[in-house]
Amino acid sequence: MDRRILLLGLLRMQEMHGYQLNDFIDRRLDFVTDLKKPTAYYILDKLCKDGYVREETEQAGNRPERKVYHITGPGEECFQKLLLQNLTTFEQTYFADDLGVIFMHSFAPREVQTALQVKLGQIRGEIERLQDLPAHNNPNDPVRLVLRHKLAHLRVDEQWVMDLIGMLAEREGWNDEPLVKPVEDCLQVSV
Amino acid sequence: MDRRILLLGLLRMQEMHGYQLNDFIDRRLDFVTDLKKPTAYYILDKLCKDGYVREETEQAGNRPERKVYHITGPGEECFQKLLLQNLTTFEQTYFADDLGVIFMHSFAPREVQTALQVKLGQIRGEIERLQDLPAHNNPNDPVRLVLRHKLAHLRVDEQWVMDLIGMLAEREGWNDEPLVKPVEDCLQVSV
DNA sequence: AGTGATATAATCAATTTTGATTAGTCAAGC
DNA sequence: GCTTGACTAATCAAAATTGATTATATCACT
């Protein structure tokens, strides 16, 4: 996930200082990326060193002086390359929540069910939050296309967790084997 | 994404040496996580230092000596805690492919369409690969539940990219505004 | 005029992750 | 008997990421 594309893409539309950039990402692109402030500054520094971005210090009133970042010619070229790369190739996504399910046999079905109920609530909360997001931009804004994408994934998660909970209902214990001795299975197959 | 849960969970089923652990993850859990070898060794070291895992060196034939990792009592406790945490809370997922779409107005619609066609092919390839994955384990294996989850997400991506391509078809240029001056919009709203 | 809350602007030390590399073993073919 | 490629086993230096913190300014309220 080369996050330079995000910073270059935003700077391409408008030169900005670091705080402004981070604030925009936090407020408006929170469902697109989890880029944190120090990482953003780190990447901006790197882009400077590579000549893709120019940095100018500016003083606004009495506030601490700040750095305004402008995209350069080579920066624009780099952005185009990254964008084409991004649009062309599919990047795998991994789901942290899958890890727990792999090992759910460690708990009793009822316990798992209770835990998943809480998770389900959080997913539904997030779906509502995104649905109610004010539509600042025009309806053709690509950000809204991304929002739809994200919502579709959240609905998959909702359904999946509901299915798991359903599967666990009315169940006292595990009558199927809980992925025993995975490595031996593996070795048997590969030998 | 606390990946200790994966290593502890596997070691809990069977003690293993590093290579074996990594090999199993690479071969059998490649669609669940992107944990790389050096990271796995790093986490194993940390688990050792924290007393969650015990490390014993072993010599097999003429091969270089290797470290066999066993989960300890505190390690089991830690695992239970991590697992409950994982099952209880929903972890947000971010999609690298969204970043490109946000800036797609930088290219002509036709170019974007061509790029997305390639991406679509890759998604379909991955769907086929996962569908054809041999079912080593019993059908109730939680890994298969995760596989279904992953496939559902891939199908969302497939549909989403198809929709985007459809949207772009027959289009010469952008007649809608391309997310202009995002920061000004943002400031207008927040002021 | 003082106090706490929030906004502005960024940096640092510490942790985590990765691409590249090391180093030896084994089996197959020439 | 020698080379080539794959497997076993892990490490290292470099890069990326994060939680915590610093420091000042402004605002709302008493």
Write a structural description.
The first copy, chain A, is 61% helix and 7% strand. The longest helix of chain A is centred in the last third of the chain and has 27 residues, at 142-168. The relative contact order of chain A is 0.10. With 191 residues, chain A is mainly alpha-helical. Chain A has a three-stranded antiparallel beta sheet with strand order 1-3-2. At the A-B interface, helix 1, helix 2, helix 4, helix 5 and helix 6 of A face helix 1, helix 2, helix 4, helix 5 and helix 6 of B. The first copy, chain A, binds a DNA duplex (30 and 30 nucleotides) through helix 2 and helix 3.
Topology readout:
Two copies of one chain form a homodimer.
Chain A: H1 4-13, E1 16-17, H2 18-28, H3 37-49, E2 53-58, E3 66-71, H4 73-88, H5 96-102, H6 109-131, H7 142-168, H8 182-190
Helix pairs in contact in A: 1-4, 6-7
Chain A binds a DNA duplex (30 and 30 nucleotides) through residues 17-19, 22-23, 36-39, 41-43, 46, 60-67.
In a nutshell, what does this entry contain?
The first copy, chain A, has 191 residues and is mainly alpha-helical. Chain A has eight helices and three strands; from the N terminus they run H-E-H-H-E-E-H-H-H-H-H. The first copy, chain A, has helices at 4-13, 18-28, 37-49, 73-88, 96-102, 109-131, 142-168, 182-190, and strands at 16-17, 53-58, 66-71.
